[in-house]
Amino acid sequence: MSHSTSLSPKERSYMQDALQMENLCIAKCGVYADQCSNQAMKSLLFDVARNKRHHANRLKQLLGNQPGSSTGRQYQ
Known about the structure:
By secondary structure, the chain is mostly helical. It has one domain. It contains 2 helices and no strands.
């Protein structure tokens, strides 16, 4: 699927807000996972963080940013 059309300022703003929310969720999942003693819950939080990182990277692609220039923690 090609996204050759440019984004309107409003669309770009919405996507930037979504990217900030994804990054916040990644950070929170990391903090909560570090505090978990239950291994199943810790694993679930890492999985959520990984999924959110995928979303954030896709948003960066659509916004024209480099996926490697993110701040915050990354989980694999």
